[in-house]
Specification:
Layout: E1 2-5, E2 11-13, E3 27-30, E4 70-72, H1 74-80, E5 84-89, H2 99-112, E6 117-121, H3 125-137, E7 140-146, H4 152-160, E8 164-168, H5 172-185, E9 189-190, H6 196-202, H7 204-213, E10 219-223, H8 228-242, E11 251-257, H9 262-268, H10 294-304, E12 307-311, H11 313-327, H12 333-347, E13 356-361, H13 370-373, H14 386-393
Parallel strand pairs: 5-13, 6-7, 6-9, 7-8, 10-11, 10-13, 11-12
Antiparallel strand pairs: 1-2, 1-3, 4-5
Helix pairs in contact: 2-3, 2-6, 3-4, 6-8, 7-8, 8-10, 11-12
The site of ligand F0G has 22 residues, from helix 3, helix 8 and helix 12.
Amino acid sequence: MVLRCIRCGREYPEDEVRYRCECGGLLEVVIDLDKVDTNIFDGKNVTLWKYESWLPVKKRVTLNEGGTPLYKLENLGKDLGIRELYAKNEGANPTGSFKDRGMTVGVSKALELGMDKVICASTGNTSASLAAYAAKAGIKAYVLVPSGKIALGKLAQAIIYGAQVVPVKGNFDDALRIVVEASSKLGVYMLNSINPFRLEGQKTIAYEIYDQLQEVPDNVVLPVGNAGNISAIWKGFKELYEAGVIDKLPRMIGIQAEGASPLAKAWKEKREFRPEERPETVATAIRIGNPANWPKAWKAVEESGGTFESVSDKEILEAQRLLASREGLFVEPASAASLAGLIKLLKNGEIEKDESYVLITTGHGLKDPNIVIDNFRLPEPIEPTLEAFRRVMK
Ligand code: F0G
C-alpha cells in the first residue's frame, strides 16, 4: 500500500505525514487488491469495520460507525415515477453524518503516525465528527469554523466533545487555508478530506450500498461541497470492480447549491474549473467556493458518465420537506440537495425514470433545527380542554 499522486503518479510511503504531492497534486491511497477479502458481501452485519481488509489502518478508534440504513423511498419513487429510489441515510452515524466514516479511519491513522493533535476546517459536520473521535482517542482537536455560518447542532457537538472551537472571520475556504498552513508548520495532523485516509473511510459507503442492495445501482446522487465524498464513493465502487466483486459501475451525480456551485458551473459551461469568491446558500454544510478535491470529483463524474447539477435554496428546502413528510426522513438542507437535484434533472429530461437511484442523505436534520423553526409559525396555545382541541381539529 502506498500514497500515489493522481496528477503525476509519484508514490510515497503510507507512513509519511503528507497531504499533497511535491507537484501539488492530490494523493490517493493505493490498496493492494490482492489482499482484500472479496467474500464478505453477503448483506449481513453491515458495519464499516466489516471491510477492514479494504482499509489502510491497523489501529481502530471507533464509535460503531457505518451500517446505516438503505431505505427504499416507495412514496417519493411513486410520486416521481422512478423505478427504484433509495436513500442511504448517513445521518444515522454516531455523530449524525457520513464524516464519521472518514474520522474513524483518519483518527486511527493519526494515532498510528504518533500524532497527538488534530485539526480541521469545517462547515460543521467535520468538526463535530473530528471532535468526537479525538475525544475517544484521547487527543487534542482544533476545529476552525466560519463564524456565524455553522448550524447550531453541529456547534453544540464540537463544544461538548471538548474540541477547541475557533471561529474564523471568513468562510470555509479561508479556514481551510489556515489549517493547511498550520498542518505544515505547527505539528498538527490535518483531517480535512485532502487527507487521503479520510476518503478511505468514506469509500465504504459504496461497499455498503452494494452489500445491502446486492447489486450496483444505476446512479448515485449526492451533495458536493469540498468534493471529497463523491471522490471517495467512486473510489469504493472502482475498487469493487477492479477486485472482481462487481461487474458494472454506477453514474456519479454531484449536486451543488446554486450560490456555491463552481463545479456545476464549469461542467455545464464546458470550461475550466474556477473557484467562487463568495459562496452563499442556506445549506451551510456545502457553502464552499473552492472545493479542495475538485480534480478527483471531476474525474469521478467524467469516468462514470455522470453529471454535476446545481439547485436553488428554494428547491433544497422543498426537497427537505418532501423527504420528511413523504418518507419520514429528516435530513439537513445540504443532504436534501440530492433529492432536489434528482427532481430537477428528471424535469429537464436529463436522466431516465426507468433506472435505479441511490440518494446519499449525508447529515441528520436535527443538526440544523433553526432552518425549520425559523420558517414555521407555531399557532397560539389552546385552553387545556377537549372542546378547544375539537375546534382546532376542524
Ligand atoms: N453534506 C453534508 C451534510 C456535509 O456536511 C458536507 C460537507 C457535504 C454534504 C459535502 O461533502 O465536502 O465531501 O463534498 N461538509 C464539510 C464539513 C465540508 O466541514 O462538515 P464533501
